[in-house]
Amino acid sequence: MSYTRIIPTPTLPLEELKNRFLSALYRPRDLSGLFEEAASAASSSETDEKYLRQILTACRRFNRRDHKGYRQLQKLLRDRTRNTANRYTAADAWAAELDLTEWQMDEVFRQAITFQLTSGCSNYCRRCNEWALPGVRGHFSRDAVVKLLGELLARGNDDLALYGGSDPLDWTDPPHDLGHVLASIQNRLPDHRDGQVRFSILTKIPKGKQELAVQLVKQGIPLSVSLTDRNRGRIEKLEQTLGSKLSKQHATSDLLIPACLDEDFQTVKPSITDSYGTEISTDGAFIIIPAFTSALYPFGHKKIPITRDTRFFPVKKLGRPALLVDYFKPLEAKGPDGIFHLEGLLDVQVENILLDNGEYELTPPGMRSIKEYFEIFDDRARVQRKKMTLSVIRRLKKEFIRNGSFSGLPPGVRQAYLNKIAAHLDFTRKTKVAAARVSAAAYLLAAVREYLSVPTPKTEIIGHLTQREFKRVNTDQCSAETRPLSNLFSDPAQDAWQLFRYQALALVHGESSAAVDEFIATQPARYDPGNDRFIPQLDCTSS
Known about the structure:
- Helix 7 (142-154) packs parallel to helix 8 and helix 17 (430-451) packs parallel to helix 21 (496-508).
- Strand 11 (277-281) and strand 12 form a beta hairpin.
- Helices cover 44% and strands 12% of the residues.
- The longest helix has 22 residues, at 430-451.
- The two termini are 26 Å apart.
- The chain is an alpha/beta fold and 543 residues long.
């Protein structure tokens, strides 16, 4: 039985292997066959090697270092680090390997949030959120960097990061360094940039790169320094040379979110990535979707490989606009025919829903959790919206009518204006708010139900990560109730978040799903992007 559409995202083979490893570690089960698979893949890409290192870290956390396969894999990765020679990737070779259509390649550049110039990193930080490989392994060639930056600028994309699992100052193609490349493109920047490079550059200032850092600052190229105890003295000396302070991020002894060598694979942490878009690296190109940092996604995001089968790209969102995205709603995307909203949730979004325990500490500042979302259906929030009706109407009038008149609006715009007013008024009425809460709960539980319908290593991992929480959930009023879920979710006296969380976790842990099945079968819902609301499936009035 299909409840709502879940959009599966491609998973790299070694990401799947990492998940199978974790599932076996949680049980525990024998690892011999898994180690054999890992060893045979040790000569793979940068991203694949990161998954292999996550496997080693997980085995250490679960005291499985005594396994012969662990030692063999450890030696293979150590040898690879020692024997890796720098290689240079040309733009044509990179594009040929991707083999994308014209519209796909166009969107790779338009939606790019990261252009990673090198693979590997001269720093090997214990809490690297990108799990950067030790030692620089490869670079885009100088011509490739110039060409790819040109492709980005030609599409007006000049607000992205020139780093990922690497340090941007590590890039070189003798005799060229990062300063030479950025200087060569300054005259190609849009007029509003006043000829100044504004690409985001976050660096640890690797050893031996102090002169380059000084050069970049003198060129007027803004950079920020990621500060830890390992480079603090080097940065202080550099600031003395410059006679000014550098912009700093992570100005603590270490990053606040454990990652890389400090990942425990047992807890869920706030998301590290706060952007939607694409990543360009020597590995290829990926779609990036923010995720809670956990055993499922130790990078703090889902990396979706872009291939000829890719049918859509998430619309680029950076900074605060990205944090304002409700991750549990269908995303705005770009396809060959333009911008649209996805018909359902990505599987990674459902995984985020299942890992979101509603705790304040888990939600990055500015992002709304599902718990906070359910609070908009509380009666106090409804009354407050009612008090704001006049100001809302004034804002909509300013947005839609401006200097004209209502009668002069095109029919489509006029109807959109009226729909917005009607939607606000609906959300001030008790019965309408109760119905909206039912639809939201039905849609989200339907997504969870469909996602869990096929057991996978990922569902086992989610079960492990949520087992303690499930034991703590107050099930008295949730499981002992005999009323249908539709009545419970429409009852203003009911804690909708607690009810939803219990039902979702009950599905994860194999509790009876009869009540949920009846609920989502009798209350089918869909997402209405026009009014940004979940509504009954058959309600077409606000489309």
